[in-house]
Design goal:
Layout (H helix, E strand, L loop, with lengths): L25 H15 L6 H7 L4 H5 L5 H13 L12 H18 L3 H4 L10 H16 L5 H29 L3 H15 L11 H5 L1 H21 L5
Length: 238
């Protein structure tokens, strides 16, 4: 008797089922899941709670999405559809890369759960929006004559994901405090300054962050991005 082949555990590896409830589409389920994730975070998302928000039974949801893992794959792909990228034939590859990185970061900060699940949300890279995003980035780097455009993309995306993960965690802590970011930083600043006393290289100027923390985050991201792009530029043929 032939061994049964295990199915690939991904929403992108199976055919969608026929809906039992015409008014309940997979698109509607995913949109509501994104709203719920943005408002309450990953831990609060469950198929049962989502069904309640949609005025449907949990079994109705399972006809469209087999598991919560599949739902996360779909949610990730949904928000990747929001990222606007410059055209591949942009005359300045570096300016276009900055635009792409900033667009990705902005989307990740609108959806604070996104960056933290990219490496664990199943076969998320097979989603149509993420595939389109990757293809457009690959075209941009290929047009710039990078010898290994895929490696350039991985480097750029790794930087953006790493920075936006830390940034989203920080903004989540700020939101939980009930204060504005400026108020939150001002309250923490005395303890931070006291903690760095005696550490010569850590006791830097924190005035900018205290006055305008959002601008300080922007500057920090831009500085690191320029360093990454400086390194990538060295890979271009001379």
């Amino acid at each position: 008797m032939a061994a049964r082949t295990n199915p690939v555990p991904s929403v992108w590896a199976r055919q969608p089922r026929e809906p039992e409830q015409p008014s309940l589409s997979r698109a509607a389920i995913v949109r509501e899941a994104v709203v719920m994730l943005d408002a309450e975070g990953i831990d609060a998302l469950s198929m049962r709670k989502l069904a309640t928000r949609l005025n449907a039974g949990a079994t109705s949801l399972y006809r469209h999405v087999a598991t919560k893992d599949e739902l996360m794959e779909l949610a990730v792909d949904e928000v990747f559809g929001e990222i606007a990228l410059p055209p591949a034939d942009s005359p300045n590859w570096r300016a276009a890369a900055v635009e792409a990185a900033q667009a990705f970061r902005a989307t990740a900060l609108r959806h604070p759960w996104l960056s933290s699940v990219l490496g664990q949300a199943g076969l998320v890279y097979l989603g149509p929006n993420l595939m389109s995003f990757s293809e457009r980035l690959a075209a941009l780097f290929a047009a710039a004559a990078f010898p290994e455009p895929a490696r350039a993309i991985e480097t750029l995306i790794s930087y953006v994901v790493g920075m936006s993960t830390a940034e989203a965690a920080w903004l989540t802590a700020v939101a939980r405090s009930g204060e504005s970011e400026t108020e939150f930083v001002a309250r923490l600043m005395p303890a931070a300054e006291q903690a760095t006393v005696g550490y010569e290289h850590l006791n830097g100027d924190s005035t900018a962050a205290a006055v305008d923390p959002a601008a300080a985050r922007d500057a920090k991201f831009s500085y690191g991005l320029e360093v990454v792009l400086d390194g990538l530029a060295l890979r271009l043929p001379r």
